[in-house]
């Protein structure tokens, strides 16, 4: 693989955004390199050192002046550029990963909303990153060093809700043995995240509306009001508009809460990001489990790329942690949870997992010749996928390297349902420092 074809030192102007870009080029070279020889490692190290020296030359002031001055002329186009622009403006991602335009839309709205005290409503299916987005909003605002308090409105029994949110006075009800602060008071000067707001009973909605209007709370059993300065971010996986029509959610509260409205797309609508999320979570899991990033058999990868992820990013992340833990060096479909595992195990997976030949019979291969055909198919698929990965998804180049007719190669790709564009060298989106 040709990894050193671009000069990372290129460009004379020293700018924060420019440097970030260079670092990203270096990172993506490392990520996509299949193997590195010593001279190449030396060269990359030299480039990394040069970058570090350039970063050291930038003062704190220069970073921000230059990032801000770039803003006026910015014509934000590609997702990579949009993400870099956010980074250059010192946006805190809190680990939010991905370059999907709809995710970037949400991040850009969050960036604008963060410094204000306006309420934000985040909607999206479970596991799409609503809570993460609430943290992003908190982290990018002036309240970042103040408390962030998360409350799951769906998990609090109705009779305890008021006391949980607003606190109580000693003796207010049986069991109230002491005065107690509620979540709103705990989040004073900070942010309160009201998760699953659609589950809030109507009585609680009235009380919440009052807080939004008066910025005051009353502990259960107390006469006096206490003023609170708490920024509200709410989230729901339900359709609140519909709930308003049905009468289970107050319309006035809905409008109050959704001054800023952020929607997060489900993972199945941003499938293009799945391979990058694999790389991200495989690295993360490897770090957490203190082992090398797990490799996947082609069959497992194929399954995971096409799986619909009803639990969205949470489910994907959990699956990657699971296969990283159970899979040893290479994980196969047998490491998936039973309820989603595909029925038949392929011949090569069985072999790769070191299973005894007897299990081939149970793999769906009725005879030796069937087993041979299955293994040959898997080998063909693995060969094509590895080849495409090495040439960054360019079919013509792969055909040239394998000395194969291009249309024959196209036919083989079609046979296996392989899409060359899935192997194009995506830019690896910048992440927080801990991942650099
Ligand atoms: N864009 C993303 N990049 C990285 N991790 C994400 C992203 N979105 C969600 N996650 C992770 O997925 C899991 C579920 O996210 P969460 O914010 O709890 O979802 P929700 O509140 O919508 O159910 C968390 O571990 C979170 O860190
Ligand atoms: Mg949640």
TrEMBL record:
Q: Which Pfam families match?
A: AAA_lid_14 (PF25601), Sigma54_activat (PF00158)
Protein name per the record: Sigma-54-dependent Fis family transcriptional regulator
Extract the GO molecular function terms from the UniProt entry: ATP binding
Q: Which Gene3D superfamilies match?
A: 1.10.8.60, Homeodomain-like, P-loop containing nucleotide triphosphate hydrolases
Q: Which SUPFAM superfamilies match?
A: Homeodomain-like, P-loop containing nucleoside triphosphate hydrolases
Indicate yes or no for the key word Transcription regulation. yes
Task: List the GO biological process terms.
Answer: regulation of DNA-templated transcription
* PANTHER family, A to Z: TRANSCRIPTIONAL REGULATORY PROTEIN
Q: Where is the Sigma-54 factor interaction domain?
A: 96-325
Keyword annotations? ATP-binding, Nucleotide-binding, Transcription, Transcription regulation
